[in-house]
Specification:
single chain, nine-stranded mixed sheet, three-stranded mixed sheet, 9 helices, 24% strand
Length: 271
């Protein structure tokens, strides 16, 4: 069972990946969303969004989060999966907490949903895996801005299989009130033109619902592959919303010699 006593996971990358001061952070997220294309088409059941610093991947993340605006009151639970970067873990790790904090406030965790999966063999509880992990945290200010009120099921994904990820997603799938967010960047540290080529190939795999994407193609390859399996089962089709890399960053931040790729994808029902 997940503990229900008040236990907050504090922000770990405020001031580095995104602004630490509430007013500055709120203004930056609102500006990124305002610059994103207007929301069109059906509301996604699932999305893929990047997790770098906002100066680099913020526009790509905003492009997909803006799609959620029409469902800002309907979406009440977010299942958020991202790869571990600092602490190795077997399986999918839940935090030893009941809320996450950002400079914009607290996000309550869905303890009932967490208890529904904690006894699955591929699920564990690891405070260490979550303590300094940015791949989940950077999404929260966008979610806090776009959605009215929601609870969170955060999963740090380590050494596991696409099938095991899909099994967890199946148990948490829910209805229109549940959004699934997979956190992943694309290629890492290639030259600008090479990155564009590799990321276009990875994009084609994602759009084809391939489940063999490597971690060199997408650092969140395991949850991306697990989402592909679940999407096929539930009749979801992915579409590309935005594709760029850190070389495209504004204000002189975009070094084109060694770049990181970012893609945003929306998964919607085919019927």
């Amino acid at each position: 069972m997940i503990a229900t006593s008040a236990n907050t996971r504090p922000p770990a990358v405020a001031g580095s990946f995104y602004p630490a001061f509430p007013e500055e952070l709120a203004a930056e997220v609102r500006s990124l969303l305002a610059d994103a294309p207007a929301a069109t088409g059906p509301i996604p059941k699932a999305i893929i969004a990047p997790h770098a610093g906002y100066v680099y991947s913020g526009p790509t993340a905003a492009a997909i989060y803006a799609r959620l605006a029409p469902a800002r009151e309907r979406i009440r639970r977010v299942v958020l999966l991202g790869p571990v970067h600092r602490v190795a873990v077997r399986g999918l790790a839940l935090p030893a907490a009941d809320r996450f904090a950002t400079p914009l406030g607290h996000v309550a965790l869905d303890v009932d949903a967490m208890n529904a999966i904690v006894n699955m063999p591929q699920v564990c509880v690891s405070a260490a895996a979550h303590a300094h992990e940015h791949s989940l945290e950077v999404h929260l200010p966008f979610l806090q801005t776009v959605l009215v009120d929601f609870t969170l099921v955060p999963l740090a994904v380590g050494d596991t299989s696409a099938g095991e990820v899909a099994e967890v997603l199946e148990r948490l799938w829910g209805g229109d009130e549940t959004l699934i967010v997979v956190s992943s960047d694309l290629s890492h540290f290639l030259g600008y033109a090479d990155a564009q080529s590799v990321d276009r190939q990875t994009t084609a795999k994602i759009l084809a619902l391939r489940d063999d994407i490597s971690h060199s193609e997408a650092c969140g390859g395991t949850p991306v592959n697990g989402l592909a399996l679940a999407a096929r089962r539930h009749g979801l089709a992915p579409s590309l919303v935005d594709l760029r890399n850190s070389g495209d960053a504004a204000r002189g931040a975009g070094d084109k010699r060694r770049v990181v790729g970012y893609g945003a994808f929306a998964y919607t029902a085919t019927a």
